[in-house]
Each structure stands twice: as structure tokens, then as C-alpha cells.
Amino acid sequence: MYRAIKIFLLTLCLAMPAFATASKAEDTIHPLVDALGVGDFPEREVAIKALVASKDPHVGKILQELSDGLLFVNQDGGPVLLQGGTDDAPTFADPISGEAAADIDPDAMVKVKVNNSLRGVISASIGQLTLLSPDRGARLAAAQGMLKDADPSNIDLLNSALAEEKDPEVKKTMEAARAVVLLKTDASPADKKAAIDTIAARGDRDALTILMAAMQTAPADLQPAIQKDMDSINDSLALWDVAQNIWYGLSLSSVLMLAAIGLSITFGVMGVVNMAHGEMVMLGAYTTYVVQEAVTTYIPGLADYSLAFAVPSAFLFTGAVGFVIERTVIRFLYKRPLETLLATWGISLILQQLVRSIFGPTNREVRNPSWMSGSFDLGGLDITWNRLWIIVFAMVVFVALLFLLKRSSFGLQMRAVTQNRRMASSMGIRTAWVDAFTFALGSGVAGMAGVALSQIDNVSPNLGQAYIIDSFMVVVFGGVGNLWGTLVGAMSLGILNKFLEPYAGAVLGKILVLVLIILFIQKRPRGLFALKGRAVEA
Amino acid sequence: MITAFLLRSLDRKIIIAILALIAVAVLVPASNLMTSPDSALHVPTYVMSLFGKYLTYALLALALDLVWGFCGILSLGHGAFFALGGYAMGMYLMRQIGARGSYGNPILPDFMVFLNYKALPWFWYGFDHFWFAALMVLLVPGLLAYVFGWFAFRSRVNGVYLSIITQAMTYALLLAFFRNDMGFGGNNGLTDFKDILGYNIQADGTRAALFALTALFLALALLISSGIVRSKFGKVLVGVRDAESRTRFLGYRVENIKLFTFVVSAMMAGVAGALYVPQVGIINPGEFAPANSIEVVIWTAVGGRATLIGPIIGAILVNGGKTIFTGLFPEVWLFALGGLFVAVTLFLPRGVVGTIAHYGTSGRKSRKESVAAEKGESDEPIQAAE
């Protein structure tokens, strides 16, 4: 018992200073706030500055309320109060604690007025205060604002903020802002030199603009250094541009690969050119749309993850459509590959018109889930999440197909049929079923490609048409029936396309790629990774 | 010698077809120009123009039949040759407009004035002369076919690979002609034609003459094609189609045989395009669309491959159907066309004419011909399937 009392007292003693400081803080801030209510505009400005200098956490909020005209004071003086409620029935409260103030005569209260110059002071003060805000995002935004709009009077504020900053990214931005500000002051040449180095270290386009501006005002002995920094930034920017092009190329490649890989499988195994492949992609995209609508309606909580349902649904649905097409049309045409091309083209027309009749000719909106929207910076690269996820998805599909083909008995049978159909048949493989399931698999993969494309392209009945020729080019370039060929084909064509674009323009670049492929196929009529041996000519 | 070649090319069916075409070339324009509009025999101008368009399509389908039916090359790029011939004619017609365009520039066509061209691009020189344009109608598609075929056949690109790269060729041209700075009018193409060889292009007389010319050119193309396929060369051609390797081993230069046929066919397609443009009044890059070229294949397939007359009938049937369907039930047309593709390949591999000939002759004619027809059907090399 005695022990308990002792602990209680001890705790009380320890807590006392905390109470004391808390009440002391309120005591220092209240007079400052109340000072806002007296005097004319110049005096009010002094009061605002004093308030800011107090570094109290409430200052930002109070200044905002002042700027919004929510602070009132009794015309005979007294405490400044925050107006709440409605204009007809106002209530008043302490702006710091939020406690309602009693015994207030609303008619006696007048607004604490601000004019435009005071508003300017307030907004500058708020900007400075956010540099010290406990919220990381607010600090970063404030530092970036100062970097863009450098004001020499902020230098002390930046210095004090820098001293307390822990987060490396915010600190870096603040240092850059400080360097920019320094360049505008009469700091010593050595300090300016250091400032230039700091800016140059950022190495982005903003830094280049800042340096260009600094070049105009800098003393003559600093100019060579600035020029050198600018050159090196330009060089590194050129490198980043190359990297960015590779990134765009990779992104295009992954889309091409997704669209082409199913085509390559069916072409390789069955020698069938599936002109309806593009429509399978389109059906996959529409499946995504339908699944999205269904999920949003029935399980709204999972709306952000509807893609997780869309991928298997699209695979199964388009796979089933492919299976039906194979069983009803294509299997009768195996001896006539060129006519398969015509029949599948006919099927593609029917599917397009079917979708147009059901969903209408206009685009359907497939939303990007939140985890696929937006972008982030990686060095000098601007990477959008949806492209990144599509690349990841393409790789996963690729690896999964690779395993299916190399490690499963179905894959073994498929490869056997690809290499020598008659021999495979003699060994007891039911080639007809291998064909049917291969076609279903190819179509299903196309459907999954449609899920990915729905995130970056318009979901319209013509979606497939836009990709079919490119997919053919990938398959012809890479060689049929070989997943690695498709991968390499898609990668080379995608990246080549994106590299030609800046020099030749998008359309001319594409034409050049087509011409290159037509020339390439002269050299290797069966693609980069051609099948060798008897399978080539039967 | 040429007379002998041409005479040999005539069998009874071809003679009937050629005579029918000549009769159409005479009778339809005559009935349009000479009978009064309310006479029962009168053919209205729009109907004549419509059928004139079908006949140019028929010529295009015939050109495709020559390479696909007899040489086994499924070209998915014949629309490109057609469009190039059309552009050559269109360029001539553009130059004929002269100062009558909206901008009144005597040299530059309207679109060039609009796009701030200062001078005529070099490839437009000469197109103010009809003979030059007519030469280009043959030469440009022929040259493209020659260069393309020389590369493709020499390196033995065949089967579906060849089909796909012909499709890539027409797709590349489609993209190229859509560009404004190519100097071919961009996506608007060439239009607003005024006159051809000094005759007003809208006049009934000119339209009748164009119709008659189209029918006569089709008859001529039929005669030439028939001459080719019935000659000794034609037998080798079928040999290439049915057993390419074997023909090569027998000592024939397969690539040259293919190249010759491909170039002749491309020139015929170019002529078809040149006849098409003045009758339709516009040529734009849409003609290069891969879908158009594939549609040509279905005309040929519906009529019957390797029959020469079949493609003509197929082109008229399918396009007539298209005109009727798109007018009455636009929704249904793509279903019908798609269904046609599937149905013809599955159930009517010989096409209309081929099927009739097959059942018509099997009763009375010798067994020899029906064997030939059988072979014609299972022509595709099996290699791609394995």
C-alpha cells in the first residue's frame, strides 16, 4: 500500500514539469494571439511575426483562420476567439484549446481584419512554418516550393529547418533550395561555389534551369565552373534519356510479348495463323470490364482488386472461346494453313461485330486500380506504376508458360507435336486433343494480354486490330514455336521502335521497323530462333 | 506468235466469258446513253458506276487468282498494288484540275497549297501527261512487286510467312500514305477530280466510256491470264504450286517463275486501281488497309480459286451483297462477311464456279479433269502444318 502511494507520488512529481511546461506554452501563446486583436495593420504584422517566432505548433492553424476571417475579438478588447456555428447563430471558442467561450455577446464581436499585404505576410509565414511541420509531405512540398521560387529572405529559415531535418530526401531538397537562395545573396564566392556544386549534384532539368539563370548573374570567375556543371548535367541527362527510351521500349515490348506469345504457340504447334488472335485480346479486355463492373456492384470492398479476378476469368473465358473455335472450325482445315487464315479472319470479323452489338461501338472505361496509378522517379527516370506492373505481369506469364512447356507432360506432348506430328501420333499422343488445348492455351494467354492492355489502351471492339500485325511481326521475327524467340523478338522490336521514334517520328519509325523486318526475313526466312532439322520442311 | 499464244489460250468457257464481257461493255453504256430514263431497258448512271466499280474489283480478284490459284502465293497485299495504280491515276487527275481548285494554283494541287508546299515534289513531275500516268500505273506496282518478290522468292520465303510479310508491306504503305509530308494528300487522299483526257469526269458519256473500258480491260486480262495458265509456262506454274521442291529439283528456276507471275499480277491490280479511281472519284490511304486485301481473297475464294472466271463472279457477288446488306442491315454485314469467310473455307473450298464445274463435268467429261480439280484443291504444301 505504502509502496503504491510512493509510486503515485513519484509519478505525480515526474509529471509536474510536463504540466508546467504545457501551461507555460499556452500562457506564452495566448498573449501573442490576443495581440492580433489590437492595434492597426502594421502593429498586427508585428504581432504575426512574433507569433511565427514562437514556433508553437498551433501557429499555422491560427494564421490560416486569421487569413480566412474566422478570428473575432470583442470591440472593447479581450481575448481573440474563433468563430464557429453559422453566421446567424455564431459560437465562439478559444482558438488554441478549442474550448467554447462562455458569456459572449455576439453583437459585440468584430472580425480581426486583414488586408492584402497582411495576407501576403501570412501566406509566406505559413510556407515557412510548413518547413518545420511534423508532416514529411508538407515539409517536402514547402522545400520544393522554395526551390522553385527562391527568396533570399528565407535563408535563415532554411538554415534552421536544415538543422532539424532528418529525412534524407527532404534534406536534399532543402539543401538545394538553400543553395539556390545563396546564389541570390551576397555570399562569399566559396559559399557560392559550394552552392553551385550542390545544385549540380541534383543533375535534373530543374538544376539545369537554375544554373542557366545563375549563369547570368554569377561573377566571371564562377562562370567556367557553372558551364562545366551544365555540360555534365547535359551529358547525364542524355544518358537518362537513353535509359528512359529503354524503359519505354521495355514497356512496349512487354505488351507486344503478351500479345504475341499465344500466337507463337499456336503458330508453332499447329502451323495455324490465327487472325482472330487480336480479337481474343479484345475479348480479354472486355472480360476485364465485365468483371470490374460485377465486382464493383456485388463486392465493392474489393473493387480495387478486380484485376485479380479478371486475370483468371479472362484466361478461362477466352480459352473456352478458343477451344470452341478449334473444335468447330480449325480442326477441319489443318491440311490447308492458308485457308485457316481466311476462316480465322472471318471469325475475327464476327467477334468484332458481336462485341460491337453487345457493348456498343464506343470505348468502355476500365479503371486503373489505385495501386496501378501514378508514377515515381527512379534517378532521372519517370516510371508509371501501370507500365511497371504490366512488365512484371508479362514476365510472370512468360515464366509460367516456360514451365508449362518444359516441365509438364502437356508441354512435352506439345513440343513433340511441334517437332514431328506423325511420330508423336505414333507414340500415342492424341494430337487432336493437343491441338485443341494448345489453341485454347494460346487464346487464354491472349485474353490475359487483354487484361493488361485494358489498363493502358482504349477498350473498344477494334482493340485487337491494332495489335495483330505487330504480333505477327514479333512472331515472324523471333521464329515460331519458341518462347525465347518471342521474348527476344518482342524486346528487339519494342526497343528498336522506341529508339527510332525520337529521330524518325512514331509513324516513320514504325514503317522503318516493318521494312527492316521484311528485309530481315530474307536473311532468315524462319525467324531468329528457327526450328532446326526435319520439322522445318516436311 | 502472239496470235498463236492468244488463240491457244481460249477454251470454251473463257470464250463465253470474254464475249459476255464485250457484250456488257457495249450494251450497258448503250442502254444508259441511248434509251430514255423511263424506258424499261434503261440503266441509270449510278448503277452503271456501281457495276463499273465491281468490275474493277473483279479485275483485282482475277489478278489475285493468278498468283494464289495457280502459283500458290497467298498475297495479303494485293490491295497495295491496286492502291498504287489508283494513286498514279489520281495524281494525273489532280494535275488536270489545274487552276480550277479552291486555291486556284495552276501547278500545285489544293492540299499542297494548304500544307504550304512551295514547289511540286519531284515524284509529281510528268503526271500532267496521260501517257506518263498510264505508264506509271503499270510500272509502280510492277516495280514494287519485282523488288519485293525478288527478295522474298530468292530467299524462299513461302507459305504463311509470305502472306504475313505481304500484309506487313501493305500496312507499312498504309502508314506511309497517311503521313501528310509524303506528298500524297495524307489521310484525305486525292479527290475533287474535274476531268480526264479533257472530258468531264461526271458526265454520263465519260462514265459510260470508263465502264466500257473497264469491261474491256477485264476481258483482256482474262485473255492474258488464260494464255499464261494454258501455256507450257502455266503447267510449270501449277507444278510450283503443288510441289515446289520437286519442280525445283527438275531444274526449273522456281523463283523466276514466281516473280514473273507476281509482277504480272501486280500490274493487273494496278490497272484495276487506275480504272477504279476515276469511277469512284477518290483515292485515299484507306485502300491500303490490310483488311481490304484480305477481302479480295474472299472474293476469289467465293468464286473459286484457279478458275479465272470464278474470281470475277465472286467479286461481283460479294460486293453486290455488301451493297445490299450495308444499305438494309448495316449491323449484319460484318456477320455475313465473317460467316462467308468461314463457310466458304469449310464447305465450299472450290468456290461457286469450281463446285459447279466439278459436279457438272464429273458426269460427262473425262476423268482427267476431275483429277486435276482434286489436285487443285489439296494444293497447299503440308510443310507449314508440321
What does this structure look like?
The complex is a heterodimer of chains A (538) and B (386). Chain A has 20 helices and 6 strands. Chain A has 538 residues and is mainly alpha-helical. Chain A has a 4-stranded antiparallel β-sheet with strand order 3-2-1-4. Chain A has a two-stranded antiparallel sheet with strand order 5-6. In chain A, α5 runs parallel beside α7 and α18 packs across α19. Chain A is elongated, with a radius of gyration of 35 Å. About 2% of the residues of chain A have low confidence. With 386 residues, chain B is mainly α. Chain B has a two-stranded antiparallel ribbon. Chain B has a two-stranded antiparallel ribbon with strand order 2-3. In chain B, a hairpin with a 2-residue loop joins β2 and β3. In chain B, α3 packs across α12 and α6 runs antiparallel to α11. In chain B, 47% of the residues are buried. The C terminus of chain B is likely disordered. At the A-B interface, α13, α18 and α20 of A face α6, α7, α12 and α14 of B.
